[in-house]
Amino acid sequence: GQSLEQPSEVTAVEGAIVQINCTYQTSGFYGLSWYQQHDGGAPTFLSYNALDGLEETGRFSSFLSRSDSYGYLLLQELQMKDSASYFCAPTRDDKIIFGKGTRLHILP
Amino acid sequence: GAVVSQHPSWVICKSGTSVKIECRSLDFQATTMFWYRQFPKQSLMLMATSNEGSKATYEQGVEKDKFLINHASLTLSTLTVTSAHPEDSSFYICSATGFGAGGVDEQFFGPGTRLTVL
Q1: Cα B89 → chain centroid
Q2: B interface mutation test: which of A29, A85, A94, A103 has the most B CBs within 10 A?
Q3: Across the interface, which of B42, B105, B111 has its CB nearest the CB of A33?
Q4: CA–CA separation, B33 vs B47, rounded Å?
Q5: Does residue B80 sit in helix, strand or coil?
Q6: CB neighbours (10 Å) of residue A52?
Q7: Is A59 left (phi over 0), alpha (psi -120 to 50) or beta?
Q8: Which of A5, B30, B54, B60 is deepest in the core (most CB within 10 A)?
């Protein structure tokens, strides 16, 4: 079957580092994407991992372990504008399956 | 980056009427467009996948006669909610991929359309 787990909420302090974990069970798995969505807005693409390892894009990094069906998004030097929902999204069969998302709260 | 627009950004309609939402790729040819629905504080639920020139593929549980999808050109897909009811009130978002613009892993999303059915 299909399953996707990520924490519903995470709170961190401005300037800190936060890691959002994701575990999945997805048949026909291609890779793992991460999207950011601010309240009332549309999702925006952050990163994609097709192979095991760490991908770094500025303050954001994403990791994938295919053997563990696990990935994470790492956000460094947190800024208030990073307050948003973050979706772990496995890709299979030419479509993306979105998880329930992690609401990130940033404290000043 | 690739830009996708949606129109209208919000719409209020009476129960029983039909509403059409447009999704356009502005600077690339969208071979595939996806339609999602999102309820407040919920995840995005994929409704259907539409490839230019062919019939849309609907996800399980989505009524194809209620949610009519047309993808007649490489830059435009439309979603028509027929005989809308209050339970259809939601945030409808389209995304697109195509030539020179991402792939299945990187979809470009429109800004969404908020539908309220009275």
Answers
A1: 14
A2: A94
A3: B105
A4: 11
A5: strand
A6: 12
A7: alpha
A8: B30
Sequence-ordered list of residues with C-beta below 8 angstroms from that of A40, at least 6 positions apart, any chain: none
What is the Cα–Cα distance from A19 to B33, expressed in whole angstroms? 31
Reading the block at residue B88, the tokens are 């259809």
Contact B106 A48 (CB under 8 A): yes
DSSP state of B9: S
Strand B76-81 and strand B57-58: the pairing is unpaired
Residue A43: which of B49, B105, B109 has the nearest Cβ?
Answer: B109
**What string of pLDDT tens digits covers the 118 residues of chain B?**
688 999 999 999 999 999 999 999 998 888 889 999 998 888 899 999 998 888 899 999 999 999 999 988 889 999 999 999 999 999 999 999 876 655 556 788 999 999 999 9
